[in-house]
Design brief:
12 helices, alpha/beta, 4-stranded parallel beta sheet, about 15% strand, binds norvaline, binds phosphoric acid mono(formamide)ester, 2 domains, single chain, about 40% helix, Rossmann fold
């Protein structure tokens, strides 16, 4: 064999299953979420009882961060090592991505050397362009529009604490942002009722959220008054008033959102067994009162930890299918 003959073909093997990406919550069906949530519980249980689960030995996850992160980085990195694989961490500042190498070229190169890619970036369209040129699955680690891994963890956490989420009522209080958009998609697919209360001018973009035409068994309703949205809710949840990339609007937003702080009064009108979630990082005294996030109804630490367990199930599913 000539030394210069390529050792591997330059295209994927014939008959290889089509590559699946996880770019937004609607990329999976209701049935697939049923599988993933069960699988995440199984994987978490194994991890908690010190049983090795390493289906991804020799596989590599590339993580690309164009925005800051604590939870997403640690959960994907620790999770991939636990699955037996390795991780490559790239940021805009320390790669050619920050020196205007085209995203398409980056996708072609990175997906030749790694087996799965997680990206945190600005526009969803940038993530989509990467995925369109990637030979391997691409996962949305947060964009301006969506944060599907977080909502997967939130739903897993709700089920862990209170059982099935179908038919339950979730109140979103605050910005109509990437988290709110993704909650809307999830309500349609998983059949729960979503109430959204945002200040005027910060509504959820229903076109961006592109929820399936029918809400199925779920529903979506907007409320001008956050107290009304919380009345009788099973889960109350919020997020920062200013998301990454919108920092110049900080002062204007602080004024506009002043009445959208999740406080003890809002939790008091929610269902007696209501729980509180926040994807974190949180600003006590802004979007949430310290007494709520640090109080008995808050499950935010379980919520953060569960990122790792659900993402392990997600990576296994994207690479190996159902087990
Ligand atoms: N919730 C979340 O995605 O946190 P990080 O920004 O720390 O990753
Ligand atoms: N909406 C927030 C979520 C942070 C995890 C942001 O995009 O900054």
């Amino acid at each position: 064999m000539s030394f210069f003959k390529p050792a591997v073909p330059s295209t994927l093997p014939k008959g290889a299953p089509p590559v699946r990406h996880y770019l937004q919550f609607t990329d999976f069906s209701t049935e697939e979420y049923g599988y993933l949530l069960e699988r995440a519980a199984f994987i978490k249980q194994k991890f908690k009882t010190f049983q090795r689960h390493q289906p991804l030995v020799d596989r590599t996850l590339a993580m690309i961060f164009e925005k800051a992160s604590t939870r997403t980085r640690v959960s994907f990195e620790a999770g991939m090592y636990q699955l037996g694989g390795s991780v490559v961490h790239l940021t805009t500042g320390d790669s050619q991505l920050g020196r205007s190498e085209p995203i398409e070229d980056s996708a072609k190169v990175i997906s030749r050397m790694t087996d799965i890619v997680m990206i945190r970036t600005y526009e969803q369209s940038k993530l989509e362009r990467f995925a369109a040129h990637s030979r391997v699955p691409v996962i949305n680690g947060l964009t301006n529009e969506f944060h599907p891994c977080q909502i997967l963890a939130d739903i897993f956490t709700y089920i862990e604490h209170r059982g099935p989420i179908a038919g339950k009522t979730v109140a979103w209080v605050g910005d109509g942002n990437n988290m709110a958009n993704t909650w809307l998609q999830a309500a349609a697919l998983l059949g729960f009722h979503l109430r959204v209360s945002t200040p005027s001018g910060y509504e959820v973009n229903e076109i961006t959220a592109a929820a399936p035409a029918s809400m199925g068994a779920g529903s979506y309703k907007t409320y001008a008054d956050p107290m009304e949205a919380c009345a009788g809710a099973d889960l109350v949840t919020t997020d920062v008033w200013t998301s990454m990339g919108f920092e110049t609007e900080n002062e204007v937003r602080r004024k506009a959102f002043a009445a959208w702080c999740v406080d003890r009064k809002m939790m008091a009108v929610a269902a007696p067994k209501a729980i509180f979630m926040h994807c974190l990082p949180a600003h006590r005294g802004e979007e949430v009162e310290a007494e709520v996030i640090d109080g008995p109804q808050s499950v935010v630490w379980d919520e953060a930890e569960n990122r790792m367990h659900v993402q392990k199930a997600l990576m296994e599913y994207l690479l190996l299918g159902k087990q």
